[in-house]
Amino acid sequence: MLELLSPFTWSLVAIVILVFGGLSVGLSMLSGSFLYLLLKGQDPSIASETLLQGLFNSYTLLAIPLFILAADIMNIGNLADKLLRFCQALVGRFRGGLGHVNVVSSLIFSGMSGSAVADAVGMGKIIIGMMTKNGQYSPAYAAAITAATATIGPIIPPSIPMVIYALVSDQSVGYLFAAGLLPGLLMAFAMGFINFWVARRRGFPVDEVVPLSDIPRITWQAFPALMLPVILLGGIYGGIMTPTEAAAVAAAYALIVSMVLYRSVSVRQLWATLTSGSRSAASIGILIAGSMAFNYVITRENVPVTISDLLSSMALSKTGFLIMVNLLILGLGCILEGGAILLIIVPMLIPSVQAMGIDLVHFGVIVVVNSMIGLITPPYGLLLFIVSSVTEEPIAQVIKEVWPFIFALILALLLITFNADFVLFLPRLLGYGL
């Protein structure tokens, strides 16, 4: 019976076995693609040629390692401390104030890093320490809200997942960034409401009130860090810089502010940051390379066309299709990393999205938000494991505390899914669709 399996089926089986065997998704897809070419009697170098052309012909991809570098520099500098003090001055005076500080700080930091992991690892470590000090908040709750708020990072521009989606959908990075702003604010509002509700139920303390006379000084100290999103987004939407150039400017600005103004980064720390950033960029690069090779395979097998024909035969309405896509990606998010979903699953769906008349920028925001929810969805939510290791709290306790935030984010996702005008409001102001 195994002899009846097609080369494509053997390729899929090989990828699944390798992934569950512990090999990275990118290398697994490369291996499966090579196996497919060998079984088809084609030159295996086709896979190498395909991925090299894809990598070298995409100038936009350069933004990814540069955004990673900018986020890493901000994490080792004093930028996070200054921003947290600023956020504490704004919202720390309310009940459950440090929870609100967590939400607002993630909102601001997301306008600089573009990465949920960078947010959780950098800003998250500091805010978790503040929340658990003196037993004000349980470690499990501090970890849960930190993981949940980190999902805002890739929605508020800049966004590494949006850059990846732009690659597979051939859409404008600038318009995708603009489309993510209001949904990101909606997600922050939803999590702020959950924190307010939990704080009232559990009697969380009112944190130390920062005197109004100190706010101008605190704001001035945080001003260089707060200017980074302004420079970044102003440059992109003012037509001064491309997103890739803006990523380079963000990295350079973060370095200057950290080393010259705050004087908080040594040469040794900078070298360690460059090394770790290179490893992170390489892992994403391998994932992208593997997806490009495997996309050649699925294109040769006419998989996107087959899926499009199957969906057409089901006579789904636009609403039904979007519900199905959300359920699919939410389910896959429980076991797959967001980048893999964007690079493997989404390209197969795009022909159907176009046939349904669904706007590709709107669809991009839907799938990115959905993929980020997967980062905190049991059993394999990456952010849950990160914050669990930071707090040394059992993962089961963190999962128990994160469910209200997952529920709030799914409600926000539904609003984003079925209200395209809300998502596309800012892109249209900037000329999208004209």
Q: Could you explain the architecture of this structure?
A:
This protein has 434 residues and is an all-alpha fold. The chain has one domain. The chain has 20 helices and no strands. Helix 6 packs parallel to helix 8 (139-150). The longest helix is centred in the middle third of the chain and has 34 residues, at 267-300. It is globular. The chain starts with 6 loop residues before the first helix and ends in a 5-residue tail after the last helix.
Order of helices and strands: HHHHHHHHHHHHHHHHHHHH
Q: How many distinct folded domains?
A: 1
- Estimate the strand proportion: under 5%
Spans of 5+ residues with little confidence (pLDDT < 50)? none
Q: How many DSSP-defined strands?
A: 0
- Major sheet attributes: none
User: In one word, what is the shape?
Assistant: globular
The rounded Rg comes to 22 Å
Number of helices: 20
- Taking the alpha carbons of the first and last residues, their distance comes to 55 Å
